[in-house]
């Protein structure tokens, strides 16, 4: 066996051990070493050289990146998640026919969809979705994310929040928690547009907080521009609404006539 | 498993860029660098990230980041950004990479660098400094080209980027230095538009030339001439003259080549310097020492110092050596005398005259037809016919037609008489020794009040100028006196023109004062000529006299004077390019349309033959926007002057203008094509002119006919069938009673131009070395003024140059020598002579019976004079064919008549006994004998026969060629030149020598000389 491959395999074994021990710092450390080592393999994307060890190397690399994605969820690091997922993705998309599909593929793809939903990047969510084959939609993990998105779009926020109980994979919990906040932001955005003010009790119900305190904290953290007085929350609708821009009719007409005149002159 | 995987997205790699570990970033950059051509759209969104990597001082692969960014920008089409990052990439940017990216960026870098350099040369020093990284890239590229042996590429880039040091490096390292140098000279003339810089390049080239062990003196001297350094040329010539016989031959060849460029002032300068060096050189003991000196040092100043020392010695030794006749000294003196004769132009003029005289093939029947067709009372057509005759016989000294038709000629009165007399000058052009004697009957008689009319006297002075054009040392004094002694404005007119022509470009102060005095008399007729004369005198000097002339042009009321002056001003800036811009600006902005019109000429002449984009742009602008038709016409016509070095371009550029609604613009377009494509027979040009020859406006037809003749000159029907059609069209116009006078005049002139100089000259504006021929360009410029003043028509004779190969031995004599023309003879032969029924001249039945029939017929129709002419023609032809048979020298008419038919291929078979080599109706080659007519299109077929006795010094296919004799011990066989050598002074006033005309052709070579025209009396 190739010595490099052996080295990586051994290191990866130590990483898995640390991972099962939930020793996240050691994991992160080992992981970055692993990634550097991986760059030495010529068979990995983007070069995809056909070496005798290609299949093993690809499998190993995919495994490492899958663990890296999950690790980033555990460490609650969204940037790292995105990075690792992007690097993992070529193994899913471009290696068909070289290595067998991974069992972790759909859960991780679903996780990514969920992340996009949490970050409110709906356009990218749909782009990713389109890239998936039709039969992938039947997968539980993907289906979960798709349903969430539908509820989210319909405004059935309660369904979104209740879906937390029915996660298909334990790693999803982290994102489901974050999703609640995303939903709340959405509601806040709508309320701002829809109402001049709301009574605190209404607002509490609307934002799905259990106590006034939580509401108060949310407002000071996220929307310090809102006023809370006389038992009501005042939105700053008036401030935001900008005067409608006037259509510059006269200049446009003038310019068009000018062009017409010039055209006539040229001939 | 065999499926080859490819990456579908760069997002993975981009994500890797965000990793904290350096190695990963590096790996990502390397991957991106190789994939950028596939994923640049994706990568473009991450450019800020990569840029920040590049700007990160700590990051050790900043250059790789820069390279990636540069590539992305390249694919996005942002070449400027791309280049600036590629510069940041330093050595990683691989100049030898064979990719679109590398090619595009290198081109961009070169452009950028070149424009920097150009700006830097214009701006004051230190204002802008070139990015050193850019410089490094360009240098790396140049070095690579030199290493790869792509020397021409390297030279081109070096010239473009103004890196003369690199240019020198490339040339020196090149395996074929001579080839490289001549390539560079070519390059600098064709592509370096900035005059000063071109001089710099040439200076550098000369420097390189001089370091070579075997310098190519021919090319050096050409460069030096352009640079205007007569003393260096004189030194080189002097060295060569004191060398071996071959060196002397080379010196002669150089001198001939210099003469061809017609730069009178320069040639005089060289000659005078040779003079001043003679005392030193005549001392045989020191000559070799001195020549060693000269080859040793680099040329210019130190040799003069040496010369001075020699002079000091000489004063003491010369007297002692005087009586001992040293053969070496005699030889040197002899050589010096010869080279001075060449430099003065006399030798080449004399040889040209001999050639044109002996090879004259003009067709008097054409003139006769014209004469008969033209109404006597129509003076325009009458003088056009006289002019046409003059052009047809330009430089041949054959004035048979005039002498035959004295009665008819005498109908020319007033200015027509002026023109007619001037026409004699054209016919006798270059007849330097006898010029004055020939014109004597018409010249103003000093003291005595001759009965001559002022018109013929003025015309005679103008004629003298034409005879001595650009070689007027001998006649200048006489012309000045004539100018001073007269107050008749017609004579002043002639004298001013004559003086201007004779002292062309010499900038002689005294002559200038004389002409200026005439100008200040404020007489319209004399003033116009004075303006032109001043311009001729000051051609190409860009002297401040121009502003003086401009001021007077503003002061005077006479349009004629303004016009003369504005043309004169234009002449002064001849060839000065950017230097002339201020003056051009001043003239083109003037309120007076005549001055703007002069401005057009100034543009044309300052940028003559440069195809300068700015000038073309300006001219086109004026051609469509000026309010005055005169200015527009001239602007279009001027395009012809600017573009004559690239004749293929002109028809394309003026094609739209030739369809303009404005007849003046169409006229200008026709002449522009005529001027720039003159003598080329270019198919595009003919196609453009063809519709214009049947334009609805008469003067457009006139211009188109003249232009067409200029284009088709020396092209025969078998080369382009449209020539025949054109000849028939001319005939039709001339014979048509209802044709407008203007177009008739055009047709008459066109017939003259088509057969100019006895069918042995062409219009050439560029010499063989691609230098502009000053006299020719000036000639055409003034010629184009005939729109206002018909006598100026005769200026076209300045543009004629003989199409001949003349081989010369070391005695500057013409030895027997043969060479090969590797093409069908019919392609380049003379047009067939017209027959009596000219309208059906095209049909000739190919039978032997016709041949005899034609003989009889031609015998019957010939009168005594035309017979004599044909004898001459025949005689020359017999020399061409190298016939040794003597039967035809008997002078029997029938024998000669049969020989006139030799050109007819079928008749040839009948008369095959006289032809040594005519086995096939159409051989694929032709042996030509020295001196021979070689038309420009034929030049590429000329080959010198190997193993013949004489070897050319320079293998040029035309002009004067010095021949090295490989068997110097054997007696040389010279070609007898039946030249118009001397004219007895007494014959001037005697009656026409009728007896001489009939004298036997065998003796013709020795004593048959053309007679001066009989002084015809005007019945006024």
Write out key terms for the chains shown:
heterodimer; A: 267 residues; mainly alpha; Serine Threonine Protein Phosphatase 5, Tetratricopeptide repeat; 2 domains; 3-stranded antiparallel beta sheet; 13 helices; 67% helix; 3% strand; extended; B: 1020 residues; Leucine-rich Repeat Variant; 4-stranded mixed beta sheet; 51 helices; 9 strands; 60% helix; ARM-type_fold (chain B); RPN2_C (chain B); proteasome (chain B); phosphoprotein (chain B)
What does this protein structure show overall?
The complex is a heterodimer of chains A (267) and B (1020). Chain A is mainly alpha-helical and 267 residues long. Helices cover 67% and strands 3% of the residues of chain A. Chain A has 13 helices and 3 strands, in the order H-H-H-H-H-H-H-H-H-E-H-H-E-E-H-H. The model of chain A has no long low-confidence stretch (mean pLDDT 81). Chain B has 1020 residues and is mostly helical. In chain B, the strands form 3 sheets. Chain B has a 4-stranded mixed beta sheet, with helices on one face. In chain B, strand 8 and strand 9 form a beta hairpin. In chain B, helix 11 runs antiparallel to helix 12, helix 32 packs parallel to helix 34 and helix 38 packs parallel to helix 40. About 13% of the residues of chain B have low confidence. The chains are: A mainly alpha (267), B mainly alpha (1020). At the A-B interface, helix 2 and helix 4 of A face helix 1 and helix 2 of B.
